Amino acid sequence: MPIFAAMILVTRGIIVQNGHVLAAQRPETMSLPLLWELPGGKVEPEELPEDCVVRETFEELMLHVQVVERLAHVDRTFKGKQYRMVPYICEVVGGKLRAVEHAAVVWQPLDRLFELSWAPAEEELMRAYVLEKWPSLVVEEVVG
After folding, report:
1. What average pLDDT does this structure show over 112-129?
2. For the range 20-23, what are the long-range contacts, defined as Cβ-Cβ under 8 Å and sequence gap of 24 or more?
């Protein structure tokens, strides 16, 4: 009889201001060290995904955001666990940017997004987002 692993729901906030996307670099002490990611995290029991991305963005970056739009999710397997990455377009409504849990944060220009070394699921989310919202930007396919 097959065993089904529970899907872990993770949110990601795509925050764009003045043609730049907010990116955070994972610390050396975490898995996928020094790769870039979007703010967000695991949805807690009884928490709505929209509330999770707002909470996590404040906890990680001290920014208050509001959700504008939900985008298509990406399913990934990492270290034997199943993850559903749910991205939201968010806008900043308050707070002062500070890297609380990350090695660094940057406002990366849209036309230079893929100069960052993104964590694999983050890169997949960003490529789908750019293709949907800015199809005129050249986005090379990931090979492998």
Report:
1. 91
2. 20/107, 20/108, 20/109, 20/110, 21/107, 21/108, 21/110, 21/113, 21/126, 22/61, 22/97, 22/105, 22/106, 22/107, 22/108, 23/105, 23/106, 23/107, 23/108, 23/116, 23/118
